[in-house]
Amino acid sequence: MKCIINGKLVLPDKVAEGMAIVFDERIKAILPEGEIEKENYEIIDAKGAFVAPGLVDIHIHGYLGEDASDGSEEGLKKMAAGIAKNGVTSWCPTTMTIAKEDIIKAFDTARKVKAQSNYGAKILGVNSEGPFVNPAKKGAQPEEFILAPDGDFIIENADIVKLFTVAPEMEGGYECAKKVYEDGRVLVSMGHTNASFDEANKGIENGVRHTTHLFNAMTALAHRNPGVVGAALSDERVSCELIADTFHVNAGLYKLVYKAKGDKLCLITDCMRAGGMPDGEYTLGGQKVIKTGIQCLLEDGTIAGSVLKLNEGVRNLYNNTNLEIYEAFNCASLNPAKAIGEDRNIGSLEVGKCADIIICDDEINVSKTIINGAEF
Q1: Are 281 and 288 spatial neighbours (Cβ–Cβ below 8 Å)?
Q2: How many CB atoms are closer than 10 A to CB 202?
Q3: How high is the pLDDT of residue 52?
Q4: How many CB atoms lie within 10 A of CB 43?
Q5: Cα 132 to Cα 235: distance, rounded to the nearest angstrom
Q6: What is the pLDDT of residue 24?
Q7: How many CB atoms lie within 10 A of CB 362?
Q8: Of 255, 271, 234, nearest to 88 (Cα)?
Q9: Is 290 helix (H, G, I), strand (E, B) or coil?
Q10: Mind listing the pLDDT tens digit for each residue in 273-307?
Q11: How many Å apart are CA 373 and CA 376, to the nearest integer?
């Protein structure tokens, strides 16, 4: 049994000092340090740093030169180990609009790795971003592989798919959303969509409960045409992803988005294979991407994912809002866990949950990551 002392515990509703956290594979107790009989535990001294829940990235394509769409077992493990160093303890490898047979291969590979252990951040399931998108808002999704929305395909793979993206206004989109929502196993997200405000609301009425990278690749918020952004922000049933890298969305909007969504705001990275790598040329869905600093662009200037680390997203959200630090952490841990129905086991420091814990400084630089009680 292990015990972390001398830390600032980031709980769902406060930061607690003078408290210790006892765990093996799961959290066994959170209690005053004075009640700890230290000789009975392997002691970890946090040295005054934050002791926070492991982060949950539900939308990440790649890292360290690898991509979930490659369908490589070793690639997924390399990503899982790499993002664990950034404080991510659970994640959803994210596929994109590629050939259907390649999507199926990526699903099968994720199944295989998910069933294993001790490879790094735990795979919760796959995020299938595409191929059911609108060509008008395809962004960096290759148009030749776009397919008509197909709820049966998602349901057939609901053992591994945790959430998927659909443009609800496309032919069959509402029916697809409704079928998957009524099945009850996979979160329905709208994204890469040219839907009007009314069409987006119709999607919500048919089961859309999430929004893929809010603001990006969707109809914008305008006062007479509120678009998908307006529908997502105004409906309390809908959770929203935010790429808080200060490039995809102006940081001046973070406070407004949090005020609108609260515990429905989910920080994501949307990171591609260039994440953790030097500037240069990379690929996404077979397309050339040029990484320069925090920007990843196709040759025509289209934004192509990010190179954000999720702990950096927490820092950016906190530094550009008046949020309490625990609220910023919730957006990258408890909120995404809730969105995909995994909050019973992960997402917060609570007795009974998995011992997924990180230790980080005031700038959210991660010094230690613990997954199911084991250090990575």
Answers
A1: yes
A2: 18
A3: 99
A4: 14
A5: 23
A6: 98
A7: 12
A8: 271
A9: strand
A10: 999 999 999 998 888 999 999 999 999 999 998 99
A11: 10
Catalytic machinery residues:
270
- Name 239's bridge partners: 210
Q: Which 3 state secondary structure label does DSSP give 40?
A: helix
CATH of domain 54-339: 3.20.20.140
Q: How much is the pLDDT for 286? A: 85
Question: To which residue do tokens 């929203």 refer?
Answer: 240
Q: Is 139 helix (H, G, I), strand (E, B) or coil?
A: coil
b/e string for 279-315 if b means 16 or more Cβ within 10 A?
eeebebbeeebbbeeebbbbeeeebbbbbbbbbbbbb
Residue 14 tokens read as: 């406060």
The three-state secondary structure class of 225 is: coil
First-to-last alpha carbon distance for the chain, in angstroms, is: 17
Task: State how far the Cα of 275 lies from the Cα of 64, in Å rounded to an integer.
Answer: 6
Give me the residues paired with residue 270 across strands: none
Query: What is the reported pLDDT for 285?
Result: 84
User: What is the C-alpha to C-alpha distance for residues 71 and 93, in angstroms, rounded to an integer?
Assistant: 10
Distance CA 305, CA 23 (A): 37
Query: Between 3.30.43.10, 2.30.40.10, 2.50.20.10, 3.40.50.2300, what CATH number should domain 2-51+352-375 receive?
Result: 2.30.40.10
The two structure tokens encoding residue 232: 């997502």
How deeply is 129 buried, as exposed, middle or buried, from its count of CB atoms within 10 A (0-12, 13-18, 19+)?
A: buried
Mark the ranges of the chain whose per-residue pLDDT is less than 70: none
If DSSP codes are grouped into helix, strand and coil, which group holds residue 41?
A: coil
Element (H, E) at 312: helix 310-319
The position carrying tokens 């680390």 is 309
Q: What residue ranges do the domains of the chain occupy?
A: 2-51+352-375, 54-339
The first and second tokens of residue 26, run together, are: 């799961």
- Nearest in space to 85 (alpha carbons), one of 276, 330, 288: 276
Structure tokens at 118: 């001790």
Residue carrying structure tokens 């390649």: 102
